[in-house]
Write a structure and sequence with these properties.
This protein has about 450 residues and is α/β, with parallel strands linked by helices. The chain folds into 2 domains: about 1-65 and about 350-445, Lyase, Ornithine Decarboxylase, Chain A, domain 1 (Beta Barrel); about 140-340, Alpha-Beta Barrel (TIM Barrel). About 30% of the residues lie in helices and about 20% in strands. The protein has helices spanning about 50-60, 70-85, 100-110, 120-125, 145-150, 165-185, 230-240, 265-285, 310-325, 340-345, 370-375, 375-380, and strands at about 1-5, 40, 45, 50, 65, 90-95, 115, 135, 155-160, 195-205, 225, 245-250, 290, 335, 350-360, 365-370, 385, 415-420, 440-445. It has an 8-stranded parallel beta barrel, surrounded by 6 helices. Strand 15 and strand 16 form a beta hairpin. Helix 2 (about 70-85) runs parallel beside helix 9 (about 310-325), helix 5 (about 145-150) crosses helix 6 (about 165-185) and helix 8 (about 265-285) runs parallel beside helix 9 (about 310-325). The protein starts with a strand and ends with a strand.
Length: about 450
């Protein structure tokens, strides 16, 4: 028995009849569709026992569909793998991958922390009842309002991304203390860690990850973080030293997305650990937390093989523990990772309705009722989506075309086609589409 969880219902209506899809899953889709995917006796795609045709009819298209059981399983898999390390491990869900209250709540229930990078994501974490101390606030261009919200809501970690952000954050903390003092009476002025805001420094490690250049973030000329090579990161340590408002407890580095080679993570860990050792030696600053970010790749095609969560945890945990001993770092280091796509990507698909089908210049064009506003990643940083090739409704020349000789079978107006995997629904992306896609969850049980 399957049921729909209704993660989000935007009230979409007006879906037309849907034709049947292929009787068997096309070759190579087992690794990219949700594990519960199958073709029903009616010839329709099912996710966790829920008929995709029925979902499209009920909620309209475009429609994001997520397999809740798979998401829960991946969250437990990550939590268990990083709990069994030679050092303290903690998993942080990168909520930008899917900032939906119900999904963030699933992550929190599995013991994961949550990272946010906008006021909207911070609000999602609040609505999902995530403990404030388990929220990590990111952003390379945080507004004063975002810093004020992070401080006001008691976010557990704020990741400093630039030197000027230090002064701005200090000013926000001082104002918060002043406002609280006026409201509640004088507060103790103490430089003890319990009265200071815990912060990380985001490092730019100079690591060029083997991934699409659009989604690399660790190279020396990256807009993200404080450089190791140019001394900005160590200057930040010196600037924070002695401040009674901030408690520098760790460093963070994120080198990109869709990474299949763990060597880049090892190189990043080495750079970060050496920085931690230097900060201790030069400034007496003890950094006890190392956050290596996310970016673990998932399969978008049969030729891609994702690294297992167990291998990621074992490789990072063993290496960081061994390298820490070599550098003479004190014990008690906590290792954090921030998966997003690898937690939710395979769990999701996007359903579209086919509108116009026409021939032009010897090529067949299939128009669907979606485009960059609901699947922007295909155009901005194409990772090789598996998709029934389609011409988006509102992307000018941005459609996806079949290569010469390829064929698109069983397509007719009003039939339902799927695009998958599905990470980062563009709930906030600007676009011309007049309707926001609905999001639905399916779970077996």
């Amino acid at each position: 028995m399957a049921r729909q969880t209704g993660l989000l219902d935007t009230g979409r209506q007006g879906y037309r009849s849907v034709s049947m899809v292929d009787q068997v899953l096309p070759d190579g889709l087992a690794a990219v569709l949700p594990p519960s995917a199958r073709i029903s006796e009616k010839g329709n795609l099912e996710i966790a026992g829920c008929d995709a045709t029925d979902l499209a009819r009920e909620y309209g298209t475009p429609l994001y569909v997520y397999d809740e059981d798979h998401i829960r399983g991946r969250a437990r898999e990550y939590a268990d793998a990083f709990a069994d390390l030679p050092l303290d491990g903690q998993v942080v869900y990168a909520s930008k991958a899917c900032p939906i209250v119900a999904i963030v709540r699933i992550m929190a229930e599995a013991g994961l922390w949550v990272d946010v990078s906008t006021l909207g994501e911070l609000e999602v974490a609040r609505q999902a009842a995530v403990e404030p101390g388990r929220v990590v606030v990111h952003g390379n261009n945080k507004s004063d309002g975002e810093l004020e919200a992070a401080v006001g809501r008691g976010a557990g970690r704020i990741v400093i991304d630039s030197l000027d952000e230090i002064d701005r954050l200090v000013a926000v903390v001082r104002q918060f203390r002043s406002d609280r003092s006026r409201a509640e009476g004088p507060q103790p002025r103490s430089s003890s860690p319990g009265n200071r805001r815990k912060v990380y420094l985001r490092l730019t490690p100079g690591v060029v990850a083997d991934t699409h250049h659009y989604i690399r973030t660790g190279q020396e000329d990256s807009k993200f973080g404080l450089g190791l090579a140019d001394g900005q990161a160590m200057a930040a340590v010196e600037q924070i030293s002695g401040l009674e408002e901030l408690d520098l407890v760790g460093v963070h580095a994120h080198i990109g997305s869709q990474i299949f080679d763990l060597d880049s993570y090892i190189e990043t860990a080495d750079a970060a650990l050496e920085f931690i050792a230097d900060a201790t030696r030069l400034h007496g600053t003890r950094l006890t937390e190392l956050d290596l970010g996310g970016g673990l790749g998932i399969a978008y095609s049969p030729t891609q093989v994702a690294v297992s969560v167990a291998e990621l945890a074992r490789t990072l945990g063993d290496h960081v523990a061994a390298r820490s001993r070599e550098l003479g770092l004190p014990g008690g280091l906590r290792l954090l990772v921030e998966p997003g796509r690898s937690l939710v990507g395979r769990a999701g698909i996007t359903l579209y309705s086919v509108g116009v089908v026409k021939e032009s210049g010897g090529r067949r064009y299939v128009a669907v009722d979606g485009g960059m506003s609901d699947n922007i990643r295909v155009r901005s940083a194409p990772p090789g989506h598996r998709v029934s090739r389609r011409h988006p409704r509102h992307s000018r020349n941005g459609g996806i075309r079949l290569d010469d000789g390829e064929q698109l079978q069983h397509v007719a107006p009003a039939c339902c086609r799927a695009c998958f995997p599905r990470a980062s629904p563009n709930c906030r992306a600007p676009g011309e589409h007049p309707r926001r896609p609905a999001v639905d969850g399916a779970v077996t049980g």
